[in-house]
């Protein structure tokens, strides 16, 4: 057990260093929320139907974005009137996020921490979102994160998560570290691990949740001469915390 904890600690330290470097170089500055976050919010939480008028789908106040980066989703939630929170392992990312919200005259709370060790009380949040984070860690850390999500969500609270799919073209490339997991060999995330999920793994990961919406999306890219560059593929899952 001690050796496992030490390995997990080393992995988290490595992630923090890698992502600090990425954000310090501003390679991952996303100033707007991912479109899937906007769609999830409109479909399941609160939909804007006028300049200052909303259709409330579910009573929700506190929202947490896991792996918030420089705060694009947190900015969106704060602007919609929610009590918005964000956590990220990167100090550099949180520094940018805090400055971003301040300059936009919006209020939100940020914490620097790992997703599998959240500094919040039980049943704190009505909604938790997580875009493209748990596919960059090993399964032990991902499972630990899901336990923390379940602990900090209210009963019936919503969890929205996106995960890279085994149907993506890069699946199988790089050094294999465990099932469906490879070390990325190029791009700004070079050196990070990438886990690719299939449907069976998603259901195992979200054991204890009621999946209320599950979607899979693929996108094919082509070069200037119409040569195929490959296919990206992601899962989009909305789940409800149950007792």
Would you mind describing this structure in some detail?
By secondary structure, the chain is α/β, with parallel strands linked by helices. The protein has helices at residues 2-24, 35-44, 72-79, 91-103, 139-152, 199-205, and strands at residues 46-48, 54-56, 62-66, 83-88, 109-112, 125-131, 153-164, 175-178, 181-183, 193-195, 209-222, 228-241. It has one domain (2-241): Rossmann fold. Residues 8-12 have low confidence and may be disordered. The strands form three sheets. Strands 5-4-3-6-7-12-11 form a seven-stranded mixed sheet. It has a three-stranded antiparallel sheet with strand order 8-9-10, with no helix packed on it. It has a two-stranded antiparallel ribbon with strand order 1-2.
Major β-sheet annotation: 7 strands, mixed
Rounded radius of gyration (Å): 18 Å
Q: How many distinct beta strands?
A: 12
User: What is the ordering of alpha helices and beta strands?
Assistant: HHEEEHEHEEHEEEEHEE
Number of helices: 6
Q: What's the CATH class label?
A: Alpha Beta
Mean pLDDT equals 88
Question: CA-to-CA gap between the ends?
Answer: 28 Å
Structural class, judged by helices and strands?
alpha/beta
Provide the number of structural domains: 1
Q: Report strand order across the widest sheet.
A: 5-4-3-6-7-12-11
Strand content: 25-35%
CATH superfamily (homologous) name: Vaccinia Virus protein VP39
């Amino acid at each position: 057990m001690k050796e496992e904890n030490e390995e997990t600690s080393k992995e988290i330290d490595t992630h923090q260093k890698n992502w600090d470097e990425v954000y310090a170089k501003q390679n991952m500055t996303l100033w707007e929320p991912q479109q899937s976050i906007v769609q999830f919010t409109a479909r399941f939480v609160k939909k804007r139907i006028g300049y200052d008028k909303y259709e409330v789908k579910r009573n929700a106040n506190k929202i947490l974005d896991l792996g918030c980066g420089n705060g694009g989703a947190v900015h969106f939630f704060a602007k919609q009137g929610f009590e918005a929170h964000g956590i990220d392992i990167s100090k550099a990312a949180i520094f940018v996020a805090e400055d971003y919200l301040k300059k936009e005259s919006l209020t939100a709370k940020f914490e620097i921490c790992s997703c599998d060790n959240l500094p919040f009380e039980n049943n704190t949040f009505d909604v938790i979102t997580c875009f493209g984070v748990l596919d960059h860690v090993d399964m032990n850390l991902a499972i630990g994160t899901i336990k923390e999500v379940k602990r900090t969500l209210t009963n019936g609270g919503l969890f929205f998560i996106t995960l890279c799919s085994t149907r993506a073209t890069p699946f199988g490339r790089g050094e294999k570290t465990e099932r469906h997991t490879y070390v990325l060999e190029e791009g700004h995330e070079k050196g990070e691990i990438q886990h690719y999920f299939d449907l069976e793994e998603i259901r195992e990961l979200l054991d204890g949740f009621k999946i209320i919406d599950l979607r899979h999306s693929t996108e094919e890219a082509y070069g200037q001469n119409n040569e195929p560059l490959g296919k990206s593929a992601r899962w989009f899952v909305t789940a409800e915390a149950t007792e």
